[in-house]
């Protein structure tokens, strides 16, 4: 059988698997409802829609773990919607508990139905896009690109590393042990430019570490690989000293760690994806609440007790469904963005000093309108798509799913010194929090890293020589 015939047969199996996964998810929900819950779920469409969306994402996780064309990015997207947004909302609403103080201003059964129906429709389109992007495509072998020159990269990376140390010294070494909430108050606009610089120095050090790790993994000379491996370890250790659970956002730390893991271990095998899923699950329950405690108080060890986890789950920190519900309500009351939210996200790399009237992200707009004390709320991709195009945003979600599958494909390919490969590392590592949103806030983070990586790669790339 030819290569094209093999690929065509594989694509037919993927299409069948998508239909089977959707049918299995809905069928499992109906069976569970009939055998265990005595028809309680199907008595209200909200639970049918929400439960169906959860089951679709749950079965998708299993399929992406066992399928060789799926990877870590696809699992992260499915994991967030299944366990970060939909399952907590299913539990909270089924017991009549809404642990979201500002939700009481707008919550109604009709709003819950609309939000859950949106989650069901968008989940179908999300995984249709991922399955479509997973299809094999017969292509001739790709032309290898020029790598990075170790001779050029070493002085550039060392100079960049010592420059970041000087910047941290100027900001103040007490930043290491200052809780993030206090940093935002003491180093804000009233404190001059130190807060803005502190947020961006870590991005520079992360970009330099990623380039050093790339050379350590891919340089053809063993001696160079050893040198750059030590340089990567020193840079990464320094990064996590200055950017730690006390003074930085949890999603930023986890994104850094995940990108480094993908650089050295792309997580393509079924076993690697299986254990990564369980690590994510355990981290959500055990580690994530602990990181939350660290960043909110200067007396961390007094708060590390069973009360920390009880406070975390009882306070509704899984606010993904809440934010999507508020997005649906906002669109219903004030109209749609009609694409302006996407334009703002695409231009988020422009500094506010250059663009003083730069709009804030969707989560902040909605939370400020609701009068929430915390304006840094999430706005998952489903909510972003709905705010821009109502249910027609499903087409945008399909494109997003296709892009996620392509990121997995890039991470399965041979590493290359291209911006697309580095973008796959950065975006793939942060996919859990790109899915969580708000999109504009996360794209600003990604844009800044990619600009720094592009500059470093351009300086360090090997020069091509013409054959004589």
TrEMBL record:
Entry keywords, A to Z: Membrane, Transmembrane, Transmembrane helix
Domain of life: Bacteria
Transmembrane segments: 14-33, 45-65, 77-99, 111-132, 152-176, 197-215, 227-246, 275-294, 334-351, 385-407, 419-439, 445-461
Name of the protein in its database record: O-antigen polysaccharide polymerase Wzy
UniProt keyword Ribonucleoprotein, yes or no: no
Keyword Transmembrane helix included in the entry's annotation: yes
């Amino acid at each position: 059988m030819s290569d094209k015939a093999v690929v065509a047969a594989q694509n037919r199996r993927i299409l069948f698997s998508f239909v089977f996964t959707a049918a299995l998810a809905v069928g499992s929900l109906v069976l569970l409802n009939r055998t265990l819950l005595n028809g309680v779920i199907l008595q209200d469409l909200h639970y049918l829609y929400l439960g169906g969306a959860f089951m679709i994402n749950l079965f998708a996780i299993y399929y992406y773990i066992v399928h060789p064309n799926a990877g870590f990015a696809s699992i992260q997207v499915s994991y967030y919607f299944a366990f970060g947004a939909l399952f907590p909302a299913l539990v909270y609403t089924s017991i009549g508990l809404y642990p979201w103080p500002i939700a009481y201003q707008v919550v109604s059964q009709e709003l819950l139905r609309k939000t859950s129906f949106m989650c069901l429709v968008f989940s179908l389109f999300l995984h249709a896009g991922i399955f479509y992007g997973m299809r094999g495509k017969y292509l001739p072998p790709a032309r290898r690109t020029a790598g990075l020159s170790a001779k050029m990269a070493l002085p550039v990376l060392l100079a960049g590393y010592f420059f970041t140390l000087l910047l941290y010294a100027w900001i103040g070494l007490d930043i290491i042990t200052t809780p993030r909430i206090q940093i935002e108050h003491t180093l804000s606009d009233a404190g001059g430019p130190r807060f803005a610089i502190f947020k961006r120095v870590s991005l520079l050090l992360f970009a330099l570490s990623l380039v050093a790790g790339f050379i350590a993994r891919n340089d053809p000379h063993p001696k160079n690989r050893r040198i750059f491996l030590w340089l990567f370890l020193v840079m990464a250790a320094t990064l996590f000293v200055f950017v730690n659970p006390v003074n930085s956002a949890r999603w930023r730390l986890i994104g850094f760690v995940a990108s480094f893991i993908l650089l050295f271990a792309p997580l393509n095998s079924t076993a690697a994806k299986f254990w990564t899923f369980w690590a994510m699950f355990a981290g959500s329950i055990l580690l994530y609440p602990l990181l939350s405690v660290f960043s909110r108080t200067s007396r961390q060890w007094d708060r590390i007790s069973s009360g920390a986890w009880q406070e975390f789950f009882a306070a509704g920190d899984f606010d993904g469904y809440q934010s999507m519900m508020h997005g649906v309500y906002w669109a219903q009351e004030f109209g749609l963005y009609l694409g302006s939210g996407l334009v703002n996200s695409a231009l988020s790399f422009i500094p506010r000093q250059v663009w003083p009237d730069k709009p804030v992200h969707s989560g902040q707009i909605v939370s400020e309108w609701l009068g929430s004390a915390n304006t840094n709320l999430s706005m998952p991709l489903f909510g972003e798509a709905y705010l821009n195009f109502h249910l027609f945003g499903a087409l945008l979600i399909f494109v997003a799913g296709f892009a996620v599958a392509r990121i997995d494909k890039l991470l399965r390919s041979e590493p290359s010194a291209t911006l697309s490969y580095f973008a796959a590392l950065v975006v793939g590592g942060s996919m859990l929090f790109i899915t969580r949103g708000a999109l504009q806030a996360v794209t600003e983070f990604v844009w800044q890293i990619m600009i720094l990586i592009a500059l470093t790669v351009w300086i360090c790339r090997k020069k091509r020589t013409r054959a004589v």
